[in-house]
Amino acid sequence: MSHATLEPGLVIAGHGRHVLVETPDGRHLICHPRGKKNQTVVGDRVLWQATQDEGTIEKVLERRNLFYRQDEIRTKSFAANLDQVLVLIAAEPEFSESQLARALIAAEAERIRPIIALNKSDLQEPFSRAWARMAAYRDMGYTVVPLALKPKAPDVSATELADLMPLLQGKTTLILGPSGSGKSTFINRLLPGAQVLTQEISSALNSGKHTTTSTSLYWVDAAKTTAVIDSPGFQEFGLHHIEAMQLAQLMPDIKSHSGECKFYNCSHLHEPGCSVQKALLPDQPSPISANRYKIYGDLFAELSQTRY
After folding, report:
1. DSSP H or E run through 252
2. 132 — phi, psi (to 5°)?
3. Is 158 contained in some domain?
4. What CATH number corresponds to the domain at position 198?
């Protein structure tokens, strides 16, 4: 096939075997992958060929990265070619630190910058507790931003997102968060027309639902330099694509103490002369929190199980 017939495009939405591709001149068209398996994800740069009023994806161009999760049964890809991942959590209901750690580890594994946004700063007591829990993450070097997103207060959007907007500018950011974290409110505040776009995408891809059942890319600015990618909420985040012995290098607090262990293949769980275990003592400089160490141990056990 002659490459002269292929046109470039950007995958901006996906549902099942259909994807929506945006052309350089701003047109949107439905494309189908060639063959049985759909290997394209939102954020992919592709080459496609016209077939009547739709298109066929002939090639996925090389990715900078791919953010995904994997459990025992299947792999769920979120998006490709990201600059950063914004993990949105809420002070109430109380967020799962294990879930947060898993998302951060997945980002570290792909060398994607993570940002943490803690929502509901208007709830004084729960937010104070949650913000204190974030101290360990700030100490690790993560950017943690407070938010107070109110679903029925669109008039305060400028102040609500003031701390966050400079971090998003000129970047492609995946918005990630468990159900109930305020993700839909965030997207609608950032992009007042997002609901209309979502309905258009749902209609085009025939998904029949206007909730976030699929992943979608939205341009924040007219120049198309800033993009956010909305993804479905999740309750589980599998890391089966990561080796247990790789885990310590993907958790900054564990990694910073792992260089002086007696054994080169230390698991940091039971070996003598382990500098990570020593760092659990409160009198150590930058001690590792007991909760983070428990998350590490639980994940190590999970990832060490025999894979079939």
Report:
1. helix 252-255
2. -65, -40
3. yes
4. 3.40.50.300
Q: Which residue has the tokens 């990265």?
A: 65
Question: What is the C-alpha to C-alpha distance for residues 251 and 74, in angstroms, rounded to an integer?
Answer: 24
pLDDT of residue 208: 46
Q: Which of 42, 60, 78 is the last residue of a domain?
A: 60
pLDDT in tens, 234-292: 778 899 999 999 999 999 999 999 989 999 999 999 999 999 999 998 887 778 999 99
Amino acid at 24: P
Q: Phi, psi at residue 207, to the nearest 5°?
A: -80, -20
Question: Is the separation of the CB atoms in 172 and 65 below 8 Å?
Answer: no
User: Facing residues of 8 across strands?
Assistant: 47
Q: How far is CA 188 from CA 141, 230, 232, in A?
A: 29, 11, 15
Does residue 49 lie within any of the structural domains? yes
Q: What CATH number has the domain bearing residue 266?
A: 1.10.40.50
Could you read off the pLDDT of 57-86 as tens digits, one per residue?
Answer: 999 999 999 999 998 888 889 999 999 999
Q: CB atoms < 10 A from the CB of 98, how many?
A: 13
Cis, peptide link before residue 287, omega less than 30° from 0 = no
Structure tokens, 264: 């080169």
Cα 213 from Cα 215, distance rounded (Å)? 7
Please say whether the beta carbons of 231 and 237 come within 8 A.
Answer: no
Return the bridge partners of 280, or none. Answer: none
Domains contained in the chain, number: 3
8-state DSSP, 198: H
Q: Rounded to 5 degrees, what angle do the CA atoms 57, 172, 55 make? A: 15
224 in the same domain as 79: yes
Question: 37, exposed or middle or buried, with CB in 10 Å at 0-12, 13-18, 19+?
Answer: exposed
Helix (H) or strand (E) holding 139: helix 135-139
